[in-house]
Amino acid sequence: MPGNKFPFSGFSSAAVHAGHQPDPNYAHLVPIYASSTYVFDEAEQGMRRFSGEEEGYIYSRWGNPTITEAEKRIAALESFGLVDATGNPLALKAILHASGMAAISTLFISHLKAGDKVLSHYSLYGGTDELLEKILPPLGIEVIIADLRNLEKAREIIQSDRSIKMLYLETPANPTIQCVDLEELTRLAKEKNLLVAVDNTFATPYLQQPFRFGVDLVIHSTTKFLNGHGTAIGGVLIGSDLDHMNGNVTKVHRLLGGNSNPFDAFLLSQGIKTLEVRMQRHCHNAMEVAGFLENHPAVSRVNYLGLSSHPDYHTASKQMSHAGAMLSFEMKDGLEAAKKFINNLQMCIRAVSLGTCDTLLCHPASMTHHGVAKEHRERYGITDGLIRMSVGIENIQDILMDLDQALSN
Ligand SMILES: *Cc1c(COP(=O)(O)O)cnc(C)c1O
User: Domains along the chain?
Assistant: First the structure.
């Protein structure tokens, strides 16, 4: 069976092939290895596998061939075209999890201890915000939330508090589509040796590669654009410190038990293959939708990074190859108008989540960010009239037709 001996020069070639191991039975696609445990030829082999002397699977909470393919594929995309300090291709280790939240939990627990602080910013994913505000403080890990678009402020905080161990960034952020500057913030963090972790879910490695700026860790909810079809929940934690990833991070992942499973990993591996073509269509459609909404009299504001009216337009242009498929907009007449609009939709889907082929719309204040205190929501710009939209890959004229009729009925 021929395998690839040259490096992939195109992103989609890597998205389709990277991480694939030829199957001993000549199956084209990686099989769904539905087996909880793996057989030893002899007791000594089991001993060698446990001691790490011999590579091989042992137990599916620890690893599984279907899961490995998805992990290697994602690592290949996050490092695509990047080199390390010595000029060699950047090596990354990815660990697939049951969900984005499981990956974020492993990230925090494997890198922080009581007395440490995390510095982060406004308008994070609702679940991440709650984890930082409610679950970590009783474990002795505190969070400082600041507007990190203000680099002077960021420098001041980083320089003045020696307990800060990690900078946790989400860009673009949910649901206001705010961006923080990955290059500048990583530079400030590295002056103080802080770890930098980035949630790259909204951008995907096709639009933004945080490792380019020297960050240490990236997480994704693979549930979203990477899977792309809304068929499975998943998350991934990717790191450039291979010793630490293979050591303590792997240990925490295995012991917390937030492992993925072969069926979801299979769906993910297949979904990733079309990431580039989907993202191109998603992005094209989103730009059209943003232009349409910006000119609609029922809409008072559109948050989309492709519009020069977005306050973070320049930051986004610096670090992303396109503005992406996520936008939010504010109904001029507030909550009642937002409800009516959502109820009027015919083709577009009323649902939370994002990154599927279908266009999805939701109302963050009452749905995804319901668990975030109202005064925080308002400070973050998550007002009652705000609607979040994940623009799908349907034909643009149908998306616009649906929005138009829903806004005018
Ligand atoms: C969905 C999401 C998460 C959480 O992922 P799950 O797969 O739902 O656990 C984290 N961050 C962002 C930006 C998300 O959109």
Answer: 11-272 (3.40.640.10), 275-408 (3.90.1150.10)
Q: What is the pLDDT along the chain (409 residues), one digit of tens a residue?
A: 556 778 899 999 999 999 999 999 999 999 999 999 999 999 999 999 999 999 999 999 999 999 999 999 999 999 999 999 999 999 999 999 999 999 999 999 999 999 999 999 988 898 999 999 999 999 999 999 999 999 999 999 999 999 999 999 999 998 889 999 999 999 999 999 999 999 999 999 999 999 999 999 999 999 999 999 999 999 999 999 999 999 999 999 999 999 999 999 999 999 999 999 999 999 999 999 999 999 999 999 999 999 999 999 999 999 999 999 999 999 999 999 999 999 999 999 999 999 999 999 999 888 877 877 888 888 778 889 999 999 999 999 999 999 999 999 8
pTM, rounded to two decimals: 0.96
Atom of ligand 1 nearest to the CA of 223: 7
Nearest CA to ligand 1 atom 6: 100
Ligand 1 centre to CA of 101 (Å) is 6
Ligand 1 pocket member 100 (CB < 6 A): yes
User: Cα dihedral sign for 195, 198, 199, 205?
Assistant: negative
Residue 223 CB–ligand 1 contact under 6 Å: yes
Residue 125 CA, ligand 1 centroid: distance in Å = 7
